[in-house]
Amino acid sequence: MAGRGKLIAVLGDEDTVTGFLLGGVGELDKHRRPNFLVVEKETALAEIEEAFRGFLCRDDIGIILINQYIAEMIRHVIDAHNKSIPAVLEIPSKEHPYDASKDSILRRAKGMFTAEDLR
Q: Coiled-coil stretches, from where to where (predicted)?
């Protein structure tokens, strides 16, 4: 990865992943593994967890974008991730709006600052 930036990985519904792929984030690594997973109704929870853990282990991924409703399915895995890279960002989907109270990363960040720090 010397001289190259890091990739964005996307775990989401078809509309979300398609939008990011059209934006140019799709790529295969040297082992032909994609940096995205389309989650459908019949996608097994184990497959979602495996893809997320796989993205965490890849040294070419710097950010993981995940639809928040999918993050809720694997919350225990996301909460166990405590490194800054790759950063995990929960995003809304067309069918499920974003709820800041469910975002574990945002809750952790809020706990790092007091009102005095922001003045």
A: none
